[in-house]
Amino acid sequence: MMLSFTRFLSVLALIGLISLPTLSLADDTIYTKVDENPVPLKTPPPRYPDSLRRDGVAGVVAVTVVIDETGAVISSVVAKSSHPDFDKPALDAIAKWKFKPGKKDGNPVKVKATLPLRFNLDQ
What we know:
- By secondary structure, the protein is an alpha+beta fold.
- The protein has 3 helices and 8 strands.
- Strands 1, 2, 4, 5, 7 and 8 form a 6-stranded mixed sheet that branches.
- A hairpin with a 2-residue loop joins strand 1 (23-25) and strand 2.
């Protein structure tokens, strides 16, 4: 299953459109607004649960991620889900994603964003 061009564009758009407050964790700052948004480079799709595919169930999982200065996903949590059986496959897939890091003032920074992972029966 390849990441569709439409889904790729959706991810790019959502990274730029999501506006959450900046979080500060000790000496680490996690930005939600940056000069350059992270760009997905490697986006393996989630595994579609067999039982949901068999039953014709499609859905979406919104995953809030923190992308570090190297472009790795360092944390992820389900923000919203249309079906709980999609949650683990979504988190497993997003943990393998790789990004060109976001930048603030020309420097790579940690960025927090919410990304949609769609489970479509035609995948």
